[in-house]
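Morning - calcium ion inputs below, output right after.
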Amino acid sequence: MNDTIRMVFTGHRNTNSQGFIAIDDIAVREGACSDQNMCGFESSLCGFENSVSHKGQWHRKRGTQHQVDHTYGTENGFYVTVMTTNSTQTEIAQLITPEFTSATEMCVRFWYWLPAGSSNDLAVHLLRSGEQLDALWKRSGASSTGWEVAEVTVSSPAKFRVSCVAFTAIQVAGTNSTVKLDDISMRDGTCSPPGSCDFESGQCSWVNIPKGDGHDWVMANGGFQGPPTDHTTQTPDGTTSDVPQHNKLNMNMPLE
Ligand SMILES: [Ca+2]
Ligand SMILES: [Ca+2]
């Protein structure tokens, strides 16, 4: 029996491009991919749990051709979405992060997809010792054309107190399409103010606008085909958002 598996990396280069495609440090190991501070829901719920106080449930679901996941952008990736139990009643589904006891302020970053129809609603709450506080972030009535990113600063005045973050979806009876979530991550410290970003720990809530020409802004360190240092740290280790020369690109101002 031949059980050899080969993987193929396929790059398509724009004929007018002055840019490049680069691959480095490929590592293969058994098991699902994981990032301690990120959940892409590829093999599990990463310790997230459904609230037992509500009937609606968040479930992992494999993407489809028209609704790809965010992590991989393919139908083979997973995300979480709400499954309702009763189509005649509005239901609430609440996905709760594992408990954390660390810093007093954390930045929660997540990707969401609100389907068409003004009846869907997604909110982020802090649960402190089981008590749900006022919504820190809420979006409703504006459907997404695809995955959108949001960042929410979570503050807990009582240091080292056990807290959780809850993603709450309200599913109105009679609607089929539901809210989706993917790539939820948390890091110490506050989120950058809307529009501000030093690119030292990601792109904040800036995203590339697909233009179909194969060009994107990429995160880069000093030196290679770019400035020798970034502006924030004035060192080659700081991160910038670069595009090859002569290419004019747009980045999308985050919604707030
Ligand atoms: Ca995913
Ligand atoms: Ca920087």
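Note: Residues 38-188 form a domain with the Jelly Rolls fold (CATH 2.60.120.200).

O.
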